[in-house]
Amino acid sequence: MRTEKRQENYEKDQRHLRDRFLCLTVGLIIIGFCLSGLLTTSSDFANRRTEIEPFFLSIPSRDTARDFSKEFSKMPHTPGSPRDATLAKRVLQLFQEELGISPTAASIFPAGSPESRNATLRLTAKDRVSQPTAWIDVYYPDLDTPKQQDVEVLDQYGQTTWAANLNEEGDPLDEDAYHSRNDVPTWHYYSADGMVEGKLVYVNYGTKQDFEALLSAGVNLTGKIALARYGEVYRGIKVENAQSSGAIGLLMYTDIRDDGRVTAQNGYAIYPHGPARNPSSVQRGSAHMLYIYPGDISTPGYPAYQNASRQEPSNVLSIPSIPISWKTAQALMEESGMFNDSISRKLVRLINRVDRAPAPIWNTMAAIPGHIKDEVVVLGCHRDAWVLGAADPVSGTVSLLEVVRAFGALLRTGWKPLRTILFTSWDAEEAGLVGSTEYGEDFGEWLSRYAVAYLNVDISAAGPRWLIYGTPSLSDLIQRTAQDIPHPTVKGKTLWDARHDRGFEYDSVEALDSRPNATDIQMLGLGSDHAVFLLRLGIAASDQMFKGVTEFDIPYHYHSIYDSHRWMQIYGDPGFHRHIAVARHLGLMTLRLADSLILPLNASRGASALDNYLTSVETKFNASRNLHVLRQSIARLQAASAELEEEKNESRLNFFDTIVGKSPSFSSRIFGATSSGLYRPYNPYSGWLGQFVSQTSLKWFEEEIRQAYIRVANANKKSMIFDRGFLSDEGLPERPWFKNLIVGPDREQGYEGTPFPALAEALQSGNSNRVEYETQRLMNLLEGLTVKLRS
């Protein structure tokens, strides 16, 4: 019986191998026809191959982008709202139209249902789908509904003497913002429900250092309401610091002193009449401990199905907080008798009433099946907004939709990707990265096995400078792709040059800043939907945006009614050039990841970055003597990574030589090897190799070619597991949701990424046993990954 079973399994494995690799024999036959001139000529191949990327890049349109921006930012669409649901269905419709998918009634599925599970899992299953598909997954996280938010000044008898107008004022000159001024209260997601009374204490930015300075100066915060300005650290950090210092509530405001030169004080008209910040603008946002775990607060580590068991959240704080405007903050300080003093003379009442209950959110998904069934490129943007969200996230959604349009145009030429492409429009990001996190927790095993990379976009355009974030293994792809994209506004320059652009006062060629210390590719943290992919699942990831970062830039009305289509047209991205630049870069990276024979993931770059990470930790904590053994493990990983990159190149050459034999020049025309190490896409019209990956009609295959392809596939798999090798089942101390020990959210800043987070916290604690333990954990991971790369 066992012998028969082994024989059955052997025959099954052989059939599976034939199904996957028969394409290579057929490709060889067709190439032979081509060489004999029966089908086409080598010059035709070369011409067609060089057409695909220019054709793809020609599709994104500023006019279409403008239309999408106007449509999606017309009305507020907060997480779980009716308008949010409408836009989820609208994105589904656009996915279907652009990718040639027939609309069906059965395309909206409760998460966890067989239909929802199959929609994702069938992309890589044996009976996988062969045509593009689109659907919506519906999750049910705990969401807040604001009921009452008030800030009042009280007299000695507890009677209200002044009540703040917390709503943004709006101006008819910006119709959308004006009509939305009363639609979304100014409040914080997952802030505690309650009413508190106390004197007001100014705490600057509300950082740990700010509170320590106040306590050192003898200021008692117990029973007080803290007043903090936005900036420096994430909102939840401010609330946690206030709570830890004894405060009973917190108010946050946007301080125009942080707006640089473009202010009313410097003669600029106030928006919507000019570029200066409107003083009634309010930054809404989440205010819980996102850095403990993101996603649904009641289902940490598992998906928020409608019938999911719920837990008491451990990342929600106990004191209420409310955001207010600069204008309201000034009036509050005056009415409470706080000017020229850090503590008010009068009592202040803060009221924050919210209801919290499970509610539906909608992740809209679409996929283009590739020839190789077990490698998937994922890209996405969230769709929900705090109010209108023309920049955050509509600009990102617009760029994503332009990418989908470009891929739809390619499909209509007969092209099909080598790897599967999964497009995602996440929901409830503004509530704490909820939609993407729930999907990642739902399909974590599947993503860990099949995802090549995750490419994120959130805010495409809200200023002049291009900021790019990514894992080091993607750095070559990011940079070289950016160097192939024109600068959005300056002729003769590339998108890569836009990393140095500065404020609107320097429009034209002078906008280019050639300072040698300008930032390149930055470390990813916790700021958007890449978090679950990188920080929990170890999948290479990137993010990008245009944003104002200097004193010359126009202030951006973040999470305000003034983040509107009008602001975007006049100040954020006039002409929508930057929307299109991001779309082209995002799309071309996706195309190269999907269609390159050898995955453009560079393990050697990733390993080299570890040296810099360790140096930064050593410098910060003066710990070089303790960490030399860790640097030795890094060196061994670097050697193994360099060997992998050499093997990838050799396997590519071997594959070409095996197929083409004595005509490598013809092979390069088909597969497009470049000196940079990146590989151009297959010809969209004649990509024969890929077209036969899933063929099962023939009954024989060429062993030599099969072995050549297995060698390529093995090299690609090792590239994919490189970033997975940094995961620990134990996770970060006191934050086990985060599994990545190489990069994680900074515990004192909240959003930003920090290298070796567990080790850094151990060094900060001064506990030598803890330092030794975390060093050993890292060494075990690095040594284990070294072995895997060499296996």
TrEMBL record:
Keyword flag Metal-binding: no
Residue ranges the record marks as coiled coil: 627-654
Keyword annotations from UniProtKB, A to Z: Coiled coil, Membrane, Transmembrane, Transmembrane helix
Pfam family, one: TFR_dimer
Gene3D superfamilies: 3.50.30.30, Transferrin receptor-like, dimerisation domain, Zn peptidases
Peptidase M28 domain span: 363-565
Family: Belongs to the peptidase M28 family. M28B subfamily.
Domain Transferrin receptor-like dimerisation: 701-789
CDD domains found in the cross-reference section: M28_PSMA_like, PA_GCPII_like
Annotated SUPFAM superfamilies: PA domain, Transferrin receptor-like dimerisation domain, Zn-dependent exopeptidases
Name of the featured protein: Zn-dependent exopeptidase
Keyword Protein biosynthesis: no
Annotated PA domain residues: 196-273
TM ranges: 21-39
